[in-house]
Amino acid sequence: GLDVGLVNYAFSGENNSYSGTSQRRLTGLARTFFGASQDFDYAAQGHVDAGGGVHPSAYQHRDFGRRHRLVRVSFDGDTVTTVATPPMGMGHPAATAAQKAGAIDQISLLLQMLVATGAPCEHTYRVFMDGRSSFDLTLTAGGKMRVRFPGYEGDVDRCWVAFQPIAGFSDPQQPARLTFLFAHVGPYAVPVSIEMPTDAAGIVQLQVRSFRLGW
Questions:
Q1: If you ran DSSP here, which 8-state letter would residue 122 be given?
Q2: What is the CA angle 69-127-146, rounded to 5?
Q3: Nearest to 123 by CA among 142, 137, 105, 143
Q4: pLDDT tens across 4-59, in order?
Q5: How far from 157 is each of 20, 90, 117, 179, 180, CA to CA, in Å?
Q6: 37 pairs with which residues across the strands?
Q7: Neighbours of 142 (CB within 10 A)
Q8: Whether 94 contacts 132, CB under 8 Å
Q9: Which residues, in sequence order, are CB contacts of 30 under 8 Å at separation 6+?
Q10: Could you please report the per-residue DSSP string of 153-170?
Q11: What is the pTM of this model?
């Protein structure tokens, strides 16, 4: 029930390539208590195939907390490699090569949900988040509903989302059911509400404040 932060996403593309950036900042009381400890900048690059599949080639993030760690991930076919400066633990247990194969980073994931063909609630995504954590998100239809958000008012598709942790987490994780809401804007299914698990604050909901499509 508290506003704890603001996240911005931006994507641009030329031909079949894309680049994406994101900034996450704590605000209000959360910033008073935690300062910049949960502030991050993100970037990702890759290409979109003819069938609407998003394939990242590189991802990175930098935190603005105590360590100011820079994490870089390269995606080369089924080989996914992480380099962190300063070094970081890779989870208990660390994700294996097979568990990372075919995964998508969390920035490219937003683009994939936006441009995916077919119904938005009929997909499973293998996600490799923050350079170490592997999990599956399986979306199934949860019906339609009408919402009123600061950045969107109208009908949406509700997706039940099964979060299945695989490996690479610093703390034990349990399967969970989350909820994503998609608005249909032209040929795109725009995610206007996303719930996700966090290590520090339980379930966090991203709720759209504004968006502009020019892809």
A1: S
A2: 110
A3: 137
A4: 889 999 999 998 999 999 999 988 888 888 888 889 999 999 999 999 999 999 99
A5: 25, 36, 15, 10, 8
A6: none
A7: 16
A8: yes
A9: 2, 4, 5, 38
A10: EEEEEEEEEEEEEEE--S
A11: 0.91
